[in-house]
Design goal:
With 371 residues, the chain is of the alpha/beta class. The protein has helices at 14-26, 38-48, 60-68, 80-83, 86-94, 113-119, 133-144, 164-172, 217-226, 240-250, 260-274, 308-325, 335-338, 341-348, and strands at 5-9, 30-35, 51-54, 72-75, 97-100, 122-125, 148-159, 179-181, 184-186, 189-191, 198-203, 207-216, 230-237, 280-290, 296-305, 331-334, 352-359.
């Protein structure tokens, strides 16, 4: 049987390698490893028994040759501020389906939606951890709730080292186009400057940390689609070095927040906070719903993984599977809104600890220190 080919641009990066390993282990596709470093490609190819092809994201010809040989292309190269829509446009030109692990659908401005529909192509954006899984998990809570989910509180955080591309994408993703700090959703509308930073937050596996309120565009869109009227979201930083670096960058000019110096500062701060610790990523959601009898019920979701990059790779694999199964409509979509929730949870269960439980209404999700 001939296996479908899936090309990975940026295959030797942290996420690309994790995705290549997962696709190879599935036995359902034939990954083609794309990258610019022949030595690294050969090492990975020997381990997986996979085909390789050199590809330069700055070269339209090189991208056309790579994408033209792959019915499905997954872009793991970054950061978005450097790569942009190059791989997506090459995929469109060659008639390949496309998955992006970092950029959200609204960031694609050169890709014409009408062209995708006309050519029967499926493009899935934000098929990663944050954004991506962070927007899909509220759907899981809502679908599991006994009644309409009215309010939701989200905590995202952990210990993880940043690659240069991941650091740049993280900083870019904190910009005004992606969300608003200290904001919350109240009665279905975004209210600015309504939340405070939480110091001394105590979360399982992380210990005490700092919760920084940040209402993402992704979460707002998902909440409104689900009819959630009240939403709060926090990035949790277990160490003070990362928070100090982000605070300094918060006072910089927009053009400086993703500069090489800023990226280096974030990487070094995260490394200091990681000293002596093992990587861990947590996604914690607390939702309240009202059942048919008018009673308030509280539902709590806990997701823990030892590797945040593996979470991103898993979301990308789910996107590939959905395209192959024909479970995604033609056009451009964010993974959080288009992937099947049950399929993603089943896949996540292989690499993460997932707990979904009913708790007493009003029960605190976390032990809070000074607010």
């Amino acid at each position: 049987m001939t296996l479908p080919i899936v090309g990975i641009v940026g295959a030797t990066g942290t996420v690309g390698t994790a995705l290549a390993e997962q696709l190879h282990a599935s036995g359902r596709v034939r990954p083609v490893l794309g990258g610019r470093d022949r030595g690294k490609l050969d090492v990975l190819a020997r381990r997986l028994g996979a085909q390789t092809q050199l590809v330069e994201v700055e070269s339209a010809r090189s991208l056309a040759e790579f994408c033209g040989a792959c019915p499905i292309v997954v872009n793991c190269a970054g950061p978005w501020s450097s790569v942009g829509e190059r791989v997506a446009l090459a995929s469109l030109a060659t008639g390949s389906h496309y998955v992006d692990v970092s950029a959200q659908a609204f960031q694609f401005v050169a890709v014409q939606r009408e062209d995708l529909a006309t050519r029967g192509l499926r493009f899935i954006a934000a098929a990663g951890s944050v954004p991506g899984l962070s927007g899909l998990l509220p759907r899981y809570v809502a679908e599991s709730a006994p009644g309409r989910l009215g309010s939701l509180r989200v905590f995202l955080g952990g210990f993880e080292r940043f690659s240069p591309a991941a650091a740049a994408d993280f900083l870019g993703g904190m910009g005004p186009d992606h969300g608003a700090p200290f904001a919350a959703l109240r009665d279905g509308r975004v209210v600015q400057r309504t939340l405070d930073r939480i110091d001394g937050l105590d979360l399982p596996y992380l210990g005490q940390g700092i919760a920084y309120p940040y209402l993402s565009r992704e979460l707002v869109a998902v909440a409104l689609r689900l009819g959630i009227r009240r939403l709060e979201a926090f990035h949790v930083f277990p160490g003070h070095h990362t928070v100090a670096a982000l605070s300094t960058l918060g006072h910089a000019r927009p053009s400086e927040t993703t500069s090489p110096a800023a990226i280096r500062a974030l990487i070094e701060a995260a490394d200091l906070d990681m000293a002596g610790k093992r990587p861990v990523q947590l996604l914690l959601l607390d939702g309240e719903s009202t059942d048919v009898r008018g009673e308030t019920r509280q539902l709590r979701l806990f997701v823990k993984a030892d590797d945040g990059y593996a979470l991103t790779a898993t979301m990308a694999q789910c996107a590939v599977d959905a395209i192959l199964a024909g479970g995604v409509p033609e056009g451009l979509h964010d993974a959080a809104t288009v992937l099947n929730v049950d399929d993603v949870i089943a896949r996540l269960d292989r690499i993460a600890t997932i707990s979904l439980a009913h708790v007493q209404p009003g029960a605190s999700f976390v032990e809070e220190g000074t607010v």
